[in-house]
Amino acid sequence: MSDHTRNDPHLHRAWCSDVLPYWRSGRPESDLGHCHRRITWLNFHIRTQDPTLSKTNADADTISAVGNWFPPPRYARPTFLLTTSLYWICLYLYVPILAPYAEYQGGSLALVGLVVSAYGLAQLLLRIPVGLFSDRLGRRKPFLALGFTASIVACIWFVYAPTPWSMVGARFVSGISACAWVAFTVLFSSYFPSSHTTRAMGYITFCNTLSVMGATFLGGQIAESFGWLAPFWASAGVGVLGLLSLNAIYERPSDKSSTQPSIGRLLSVLKFPELILASIVAALGQYTTFATIFGFVPNYAVSIGATKAQLGILSMVGMLTSSLAILVSSSYIVPRLGPRVTVFLSFFAITLGTFVLPFIQSVTILYASQVLAGMGRGASYPILMGLAIARLPDGDKATAMGFFQATYAIGMFAGPVCAGLIGSRWGYPELFLSTAFVSLLTAFVSLCLPPKGKQSS
Which one of 90, 317, 418, 433 has the fewest beta carbons within 10 angstroms of its own beta carbon? Predict the structure, then answer.
């Protein structure tokens, strides 16, 4: 055993628990094959983590054992998650007060719906091109920089927007920023073997949800203390910090994709039924999300007496339960029930949380409804993201993720528009009850998903 293996607790544990028992026991050849693979992995890990050795020194057997995946530096994952947090804080710090602020500026519910939906429209139009171009370029970091830059521009635009109609344009630019999420998810998944795609999506979705939770809570408090425009200025400042943090992001250069035409590449990823089904379910789910907690629930809360600070707490409650649901779902529920049943139960919980909204007249009870809906959102989306790209080769994952996120952007766009039109004509009860029906439909559509995951959790 080398000194490097002895000094690394993870390698030492793997050597003592897996390799030595097989080596000493005289097991059959099939078991000794496991021993050989484990030794090969240790050899690979030592060569790629020891700074005195070059990755190019890894022998052919080593590369064959682990595929084309190289473990990232130890700092890569936590640094990336920190940058991801800054990204989502920048995007969501002002969201709790956005729809009420648009209404305060004189917008009708239909116009408020357009402001909210412009975010999804940008993603619907641009996420597939971003994924295709990212795969062809073989790089992700330039798109991360684009995301932060667009978010900063959007925040400044919101500050100087004279009317709600001008806010539609600012929200569209923030939707351009959100298109960078394609590159975020694919780059982070490259830090894990392909068999751990769902685990990677769970980590980054947990980070996303936790960051949005903190951002929405702080946004409400900032608006309460300093006025409507303060969250937009604060968000722009966070965006600048995010741009600076990109200097520490690790990206292993990958080969550019083939010269295959973009449309042909897109059609090739559409051969995977899990991608299509997961995208449809996610689109229906985002309709509900952006018609409720990121749409008209804050406006309804104001109508029953909520303050700006309580708007932040309302969003935080939903995000906190989403974060907890992500951990519980990926660790305990999915291994026992499978992805299909878990997603079905998740959307059934969202349906109940949405159905009760028009009957609530207390802000405290409104919090409780968002606990239920937040649990459903947190449990379902990492599963759908993992299913979307798990079986795809690395060179096509950004294209597939672009399709997945562009498809669910249909719901992000349609939810606020349709709900706003319904609310303008009939009022909040019909708005929320129609949205609950869409959520119930999503639950039954999710029964078409694979009963068992095809990737490791």
Answer: 433
Q: Which amino acid is at 451?
A: P
Angle between helices 197-226 and 230-245 (to 10 degrees): 140
pLDDT digits (tens, 9 = 90+) for 77-93: 899 999 999 999 999 99
Residue 67 reports pLDDT greater than 70: no
User: C-alpha angle with apex 238: 133 to 247, nearest 5 degrees?
Assistant: 55
Do 326 and 209 meet the contact criterion of CB atoms below 8 Å apart?
yes
Which superfamily does CATH assign the domain made up of 76-448 to?
Answer: MFS general substrate transporter like domains (1.20.1250.20)
Residue with tokens 């702080």: 218
pLDDT digits (tens, 9 = 90+) for 419-442: 999 999 999 999 999 999 999 999
- Cα distance between residue 132 and residue 147, in whole Å: 16
Residues contacting 399, CB < 8 A, separation 6+: 128, 131, 132, 135, 265, 266, 269
Q: Which residues of 198-233 are buried (b: 16+ CB within 10 A; e: fewer)?
A: bbbbbbbbbbbbbbbbbbbbbbbbbbbeeebbbbbb
The residues spanned by each domain of the chain are 3-66, 76-448
**CB–CB of 296/428 below 8 Å?**
yes
State percent of the chain over pLDDT 70.
79
